Structure formats: C-alpha cells, structure tokens
Amino acid sequence: MYEIMWLILGILSVISAILVVSRINPVYSALYLMLFFASVSGLFAFLGASFVAVTQLFIYIGAIIVLFLFVIMMLNFEELKKLQRPPLFSPLKGLILSLALFGLLCVPIYFGLPSAHPRHLPADFGSAKWIARDMYIQYPFAIELASVLIIAALAGAFVIARIGKKAKNS
Amino acid sequence: MSSMVLDAGKILLIFAVFMQIPPLLIYLERKICAFIQDRIGPNRVGPFGILQPLADAIKLITKESITPKNVDVFLYTVAPLFVMVPAAISFAVVPVGADVKLWGHTLQLQIADFHVGILFFLAITSLSVYGLTFGAWASNNKYSLYGGIRSTAQMISYEVAMGLAVICVLMSSGTVYLREMVFAQSHTYFGFLPAWNVFHQPLAFVIFLIAAFAETNRLPFDLPEAESELVGGYHTEYSGMKFAMFFMGEYMAMISMSAIMVTLFFGGWTLPGVVDAHSTTVWNALLSVVVFGIKTGAFLIFFIWIRWTLPRLRYDQLMKLGWKVLIPLALMNLFFTAIWGLRDQIF
Amino acid sequence: MSPNFLLYIGAALFSIGTFGVLSCRNTLILLMSIEIMLTGVSLSLVTFSWIWANSAGQIFVIFIMAVAAGEAAIGLAIIMAFYRLHKSVQTDKAELMKG
Hints:
heterotrimer, B: mainly alpha, two-stranded antiparallel ribbon, 13 helices, C: 3 helices
C-alpha cells in the first residue's frame, strides 16, 4: 500500500518539477510548483513524517508560492509571457550537466547503501511532540540561529525593496 | 469490516450535512440583511421565501456558462475548485460530537484525527487563496488582477497573526489534537464557569476572530472583491456555475472557520451540565451534535451581523492593522503565555 | 519496494532543479528551481529519517524550511529591486558589473 503511494507520488513530483522548469509563463510554473510541493508533502506523509508534511504545506504552499504569485502579479506580466530560452547557455548543455549530476548522485545510493530495512518505528513517529522533544533538547543553538536568520531576512527584504524604490524615484 | 462501513457512513453523513448548510446560510444572510436594513427580504418563493435558495440554485445551474474571449481557459476553469475543495477538506479534522457506541463499535464523530490536528486545518485553509489569485489572473481583467494582488497580500499578512494566535492556544492546552482539546475543555471552574480556552486566551481569541474574517474575505476585510471599488474583484468575469462555486466556497470556508473557532475556544461539542463528555450513548451524541450546531450557528450569525454593520477598511488600514497591531499583539501574547507556562522554573 | 527508490527521486529532483538554475533566463523560475533543489534534499533527509527511525532528518528539514522561507523573501525582494532598475527580470540584463 505504502509502496504504491510512494511510486505514484514520486513520479508525480518528478513530472511536476520538470513542468516547473520547462514553462515559459511563470504563473504556470507557480501552479506546477504547487503540485510539486503537494506531492512531496504527500510523500512525507506516507513516510510517517506527518508534522513535516503539514509544515511543508503550510510554509511552501501557504506562504512561499503566494509570495511568488504576488511578485509575478506586481510585475508587468505582458513582458513575462514573452521570455524566451536563453541563447547564452543552451538548454542542451544544462541537460547534459544535470544528467551527469544525477548519475553522480546515483552512484553512492546504488553502491553505498545496502537496501535498508526500516527499523521499528515508535508509535508517535513524526508527530509534533516527538520532533519537538528531540529538536529543543539536541539543537537549541541551531534554533536560535534560525530565528536570527529569519529576523535578518525580514529586515533585509524590507531594506532591499526600499533601495529599489529610491533608485526609481531619483 | 463493519467498522469500515460505519466510518464510511459517518464521512458521508458529515459531508452531506456540511454541503446542505451554505444554501441555508445564504437565505439567512439575505433575511438578516433585510432585517438590518429595515426591509422584508425574500418572501415570494414558498412560505417566508424559504425556497429562495432552491430557486437560486436552479437559476445558477441552468444559466449559460460563459467563458470570456481572452481568458486563460485552463486556470479560469480550475480556479473555482481551488476555493471550494480546501474549504470542504478542512472540515475533516473538526470533531462534531461525542463518541457513540453503535453495534459494539465505538465511533468518533470526527472524520480524521491526524497526528497534527489543528496544523492540518491551517495548512489546508491557506490553499484557498489560490482560487482567488489564479481566477483573478486568468480573467485577464485589470480589476480582477487588483483583486488577486490584494488577496495574496492580505492572506500572507493575516495568516501570520492567525498562526501565532493558534500557537498560544496550543501552548496553554499542551496538545495539537483537536479531540483532546475538546475533552480538556469539558470541565468547569467554580462549578459554573466552563473551562473554555476563551477564558484562558481572550487576546488570542480576538486576534483569531479578526484574522478569520480576513481569511474568509468577509466584510470588513472583503478587499479582494470590494464591489464599490473593483466592480466584482476576482470574480468579475465569472458567471453561472463557476461563480456559484466561488460563492459556495466562501460560505463553506465560513462554516469551517466557525466550527474551528468553536472547537478551539468554546469547548467544541461539550457543554457542562448538558453533554457528558465521557458517555457513549446515542442520546448523548445527538445532544452533543445539537450543542455543536448551535455554537457554530451563533458564530455564523455573528459573521453575517458584522458584514451588514461595519464598513469596509481601506487597503492601507488593512495592512496597518495586520502588521502593526495584530502581529505585535500576538507576539506579546505568545511571550506572556510562555512565561506563564514556565512560571515554576522562572520564579 | 525499498526506500532507496525515494532517494533516487530526491537525486532526480535535485538534478532537475540544477537544470532549471542553469538554463532558465527568468529569475522567478530560477528561484523556484532553487526551491526544488532544497526540496529534493528534504525528501532524502525524511527518507533517511524513516530508514533509521531517527528524528534528526525531520529536524533538519524544518531548518531547511526556515532557510528556504528567508531565501525566498530576500530573493523576491532582490527581484523587485532589479525590476525597478531594469524593467525586466531576465538574468542577462544584470550586467552592471560588466567592464
């Protein structure tokens, strides 16, 4: 049962990822990106990581893609529709490079990992309490760093957006 | 096997009832609006106009489905689904009644009790903004596009405040499971005051309520459709059944939001002295469903009442309220809740 | 089916993201490709977490999400500023540093 869902959602995520990078119109890219994140979130749920799955939905689909759509709509979308593939770096070269990367990544998976059998999972595997217990005991410093990072990003985004505005007015 | 049949029946029943409420709500909205504006309201179809929703439905179904010329056909067609489906799915985590023992099986009157509970609700309701945004963009209309931009900015701003308010409730009740949260609220203080979370977290409730209005695009926060500024906002180009789906989606989101507010802050289906939280008789379960319905209905009427009472905010006022008032207040509330939770270690 | 299948999927997603970064001229889709790469890594981490019944993988994914959210906000702010300067979001318009 789980294996079938892995297969379906895994293939769906790969297809939607390919659609994201191959669309010219960024609104369609955003639509397929949403499908991509939804299928990956489904994979997380079928791997027992329900908290991570819901956080993935909440943060990526609920916030990040909405932000993307906001920017796409703020910009002049007539121009966005006309964008062509770049002449600088041909898609063929990109394809060869990324296929080589995929081959490189497959080597350790094929040779390095014995086909691992799942250990006995705890009953509350993936629940919010289980993650929080380990996270706050083992990684308190990393949490502090992440919060500083987010505040810096908030302030940084604000400042950068204002710099652009100043340049436009002068 | 028979427990699976019971579960399937439960899901069917809950969704069947859930889908019947929006037409009723539209009738109620028109009647209450008429009462507030000193009119009579719908009174032609059936006694007191009670068959008006049926007539509306027939009209909307039989109307010609128009697709304007320069729209993006695919997104234009799927956009209404993005509004309706998340609103319906999000209801799945709401516990609607007490456990009931039927033919030897104990049945929970809740479609699914996930490991993540309330977070699932927040994640799924945040999807409904896509219907507005994609519909607005696909319509290829400047007023629609303004509606879409407004809805994205509004959703992001108010989701933060709503999430922070929910975190306060999670911290004070110590669980993410909505079922456990309802049981935790079933006892009383001093013998008469119900132990509802609204008394623990009044500020969180106010923030959640305001954010809920913004999330469901109801007045005073219906900036995405603002008919006096943007013609019809994101649904300017929609008509017939597609428009009806936007409309239904808005009302279904309202029902889900009211139900979750009742569950989080007002004890869900429990009522001290009327419903026994730990009994599993059929009578008790029916009573609990009725209690839940009355509480949710009170919130729905509150939604309608506010809509016809308050004027719409200006857009900069909306953003100011979201970022400069609600989020700081929610953070402050979070801070004091955390201090209260750790009072034994600190003092 | 062994969970190694999901590791292959994660590797494939990372490669697709790389392809997007290398060959997209539109900065918006370029940012989306970076999100795809990060998610490919997340998928591998969650799979390892399931294989070893260990929480570290899922905790790392939560940190990745924090980084991704910050990165998206900064990236989109840069795109807005860039668009105001050049009236375009194409990568080859970023040539102010060219001598």
